[in-house]
Amino acid sequence: MSDLPPPGAPAGWYPDADPEVERWWDGTSWTNRTRAGSSSSPAPSSPELAPAAPAATLVVRGVTGYVELVGDTLLYRSKLDRPPLQRIALSTVSEVLVSRNGDTFDLLLIGARPRSRPSLFSETSIRRSSRTTPTEWGTFLEALGLAVLRARP
Fold first, then answer.
1. DSSP 62-88
2. Cys staple from 1: which of 30, 40, 62, 131, with CB 3.0 to 4.6 Å?
3. How far is CA 86 from CA 21, 39, 76, 124, 146, in A?
4. How far is it, in rounded angstroms, from Cα 151 to Cα 109?
5. What span, in angstroms and rounded, lies between the C-alpha atoms of 15 and 150?
6. Could you report the per-residue pLDDT of 50-82, keeping only the tens digit for each?
7. How far is Cα 94 from Cα 88, in angstroms, rounded to an integer?
8. pLDDT tens digit sequence for 103-116
């Protein structure tokens, strides 16, 4: 999971990278507790009873800012408390390009010139910050890839 939950998120169950799994956020950090996802149950107040939270938000820190996956939109922010510098509807993305070492990703937009790897000069490219663990980054990339597939018409 990301090291940052949805802004102001209370303790509760939140969707994990796997859309059929939820993970417990204890109010300060992600735990190892998971359960089968459910979109229709109300939110309980303990890990055993906790409900599904509203739409998942995943956030990772890159070298130049933050990337936030909110439903079918990707937001790029310089800081979490600032307005997005850019919003990208995932329905406009044809592919997520990941570097060989996995530390950089870029979006290939529909109609853009094809390429096989991320461009460091692209407005949609971001490199993993040393403050974001490889596991958090990988979870984010997996969720982003699935969200792009779901957003395709």
1. BSSSEEEEETTEEEEESSTTS--SEEE
2. 30
3. 29, 29, 5, 9, 21
4. 13
5. 15
6. 333 334 688 999 999 999 999 889 999 999 889
7. 12
8. 999 999 999 998 88
d(CA 80, CA 101): 26
What are the residues facing 88 on neighbouring strands? 74
Determine how many CB atoms are found less than 10 A away from the CB of residue 35: 15
Query: In this structure, are residues 114 and 103 in contact, taking their beta carbons and an 8 Å threshold?
Result: no
State which H helix or E strand residue 96 sits in: strand 93-98
Distance CA 137, CA 151 (A): 21
pTM for this predicted structure: 0.63
